[in-house]
């Protein structure tokens, strides 16, 4: 449940930073860095441990460790509580303490840059695939990229366009799934078609085998159009 878990640094990077910090503080210090694969790690099994450093917000976790140690026949650890440093630069929606969650939030959007001329890049169009679940912000990001000079291709709209009467997949879809999927005005009833394919892998594959190549072809046409427009 961490904020922006996708932006958490890899374990190897975090361990390397911790080693650098420990060696900077006291080069003669002996230590082990152990990846935690459960909520407790070696704190409830190592008989040589004597003390656990906690903060005000992790003291309850330290007490849970001691309870587990007693269950395992080990002596309790001394809980040494430290104060967490406050972040004088934190904003209203960030934590008051110096927090990796706040740092990850500040990373958002920092990689966006205006398009730049680079003679080492080939002159062909660059294609960026923008994907995500409902409500994830695809439309907002697409608009932002458009303002930066990107040519926008909406695959959802193309997916609807292949089904319209006269569209590239219309005749094939009607032939494959029957006249009962056609409304009185000649359009394809997507609800009736959906009832035929969802939950039926063979039928769904038959539909995608017809529709997806046509969408891909239309996308390639639009990429060529973008290239022509520079």
From TrEMBL:
This is COASY synthase. GO terms for biological process: coenzyme A biosynthetic process. Pfam families: CoaE (PF01121). CDD domains: DPCK. The keyword ATP-binding applies. The keyword ATP-binding applies. Keywords: ATP-binding, Nucleotide-binding. GO terms for molecular function: ATP binding; dephospho-CoA kinase activity.
């Amino acid at each position: 449940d961490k904020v922006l878990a996708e932006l958490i640094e890899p374990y190897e990077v975090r361990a390397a930073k911790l080693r650098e910090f420990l060696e900077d503080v006291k080069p003669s210090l002996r230590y082990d860095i152990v990846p935690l694969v459960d909520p407790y790690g070696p704190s409830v099994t190592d008989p040589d441990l004597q003390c656990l450093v906690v903060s005000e917000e992790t003291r309850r976790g330290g007490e849970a460790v001691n309870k587990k140690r007693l269950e395992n026949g080990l002596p309790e650890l001394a809980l040494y509580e430290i104060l967490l440093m406050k972040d004088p630069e934190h904003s209203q929606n960030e934590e008051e303490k110096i927090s990796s969650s706040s740092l990850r939030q500040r990373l958002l959007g920092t990689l966006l840059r205006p398009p730049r001329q680079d003679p080492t890049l080939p002159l062909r169009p660059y294609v960026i695939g923008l994907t995500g679940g409902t409500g994830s912000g695809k439309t907002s990001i697409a608009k932002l990229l458009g303002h930066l000079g990107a040519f926008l291709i909406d695959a959802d709209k193309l997916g609807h366009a292949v089904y319209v009467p006269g569209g590239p997949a219309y005749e094939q879809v009607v032939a494959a799934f029957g006249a009962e999927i056609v409304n009185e005005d000649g359009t394809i009833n997507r609800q009736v078609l959906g009832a035929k394919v969802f939950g039926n892998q063979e039928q769904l594959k038959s539909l995608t085998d017809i529709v997806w190549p046509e969408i891909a072809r239309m996308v390639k046409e639009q990429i060529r159009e973008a290239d022509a427009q520079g």
